[in-house]
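Subject: sequence -> structure tokens, single chain

Hey, anyone have a minute? Need the predicted structure for the following. Not urgent.
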Amino acid sequence: MARETHGAVLVLAHGEGAGRVYVFLPAQPAVSGYVPIVFFHHGWQGMNPKNFGALIDHLAREGQVVIYPVYQQSAKTSPQVIVGNAAAADRDALALLSARAIWPDPARILYIGYSMGAAISLDLALHPARFGLPAPRALVLMAPGDAPAVATGPAGRPIIGNLRLLPRTLPVAVMAGEQDTQIGLPTARAVFARLCQIYPDRRVLMVLPGDSRDGVTVHAGHGSPGAPDSRYDFPLTDENFPVLLQGQQSFPASVSLNQLDFYGYWKVIDALAGSLATGALPAAVFGHGDPAELYLGTWPDGTPFKPIRLENPCR
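Reply:
Had a minute. Here:
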């Protein structure tokens, strides 16, 4: 990708078990001083960054430091403690960076949350000072989830706080696949309906379709934001860090890496991350139905992929 200006990614790790955090640093050239930061909060049991390795690699090689807190030991971890776990790991990552003379640029802080990670991102965005974290300047929520999707009883109480307290000026992109009918899409609609105080030109709900052609099917289910890369396979038992990952010309072939990523999830993330440097709202995200906002690329024969559909529960 043309935006990937760094030749490698340096991987650091700190802590153990649910307290572990991975830090992905742009390398060749290395970064220092005040830098853009992406706080990437994964989904339930996504402790290993492998499933989002290609996206992490892309973001870091663009020049952004990516912080990836583990926040749980296993499926037995209660959802009621994961926000605090993630916040503590995020703070540890910032301390690790500070020791290397790297600090977050407060104007270029992006929170990304997938599934349960979306709930974490929202809660941290509600009270960043309370958690000792820099406030997000934009928020991307992919296939959002909440505790009732993964636990029952007291552990399954919803953890997403009062979203009406989020700043009215905070740009928020909520995204879900149209086939993600059990978790992502209904939660996306419910979350977005609680974001109506945010200025209309700074919030969007995108529904990404599945599509088929010539015997090939792209599914828009709950796992569609996944972008696997086996080079980012770091089980919790791994202790050999740092690791230097050389950049590659292309990403590993995967049924999970397709038009929905490059022209959907990644397009939105890239556009919002880039907009933080300029202060201008990106039309590719908040285009009010412009073709560039809805475009999801083409099939190999040039046939357009089905476009993104916008919904607005605030009407």
